[in-house]
Amino acid sequence: MNFGCPVRKVTRKGGGSAIPAKPRLLADIVRAAVQNAGEIPVTIKFRMGIDDSLLTYEDAGRIAEDEGCAAVALHARTAAQLYDGEAQWDAIANLKQRVRTIPVLGNGDIWEAHDALRSAEAASGGPGSSEIWRTSSKDESPRIPRASVKWPRLRSSTPLC
Fold this sequence. Notes:
By secondary structure, the chain is an alpha/beta fold. It contains five helices and six strands, in the order βααβββαβαβα.
């Protein structure tokens, strides 16, 4: 689920990246999704917070872990930044220290292979100890390799939302 949308028309109504600022609401949504997903792995993506004065990513990661998510993804910017400024890859490393039982994926400012390597090193504290996940500009959701997750077969009429 994407709780990372920073677009004002979404956040001003309490959606997107504004949801993690309401931890009880986030927990309720994630819990309901996990409980109703059956064997389908649930992941969530979120931003660092609303702005530098209201950072929510540590709580969002803990909630996801506590409620049974299969992984979390952090876009290492605040909602106020939109897509401007530099991603703060050290926040991904910080989240990895707090979320210990599920994978922590990071994104932001990965435009070419060199960026992916630098991001992985910054998020892991050293070369070679972090996974690299490719995203596209249209869909920033992490691409989890099929071999790493047992994906159930779904009928085309299976409701996913």
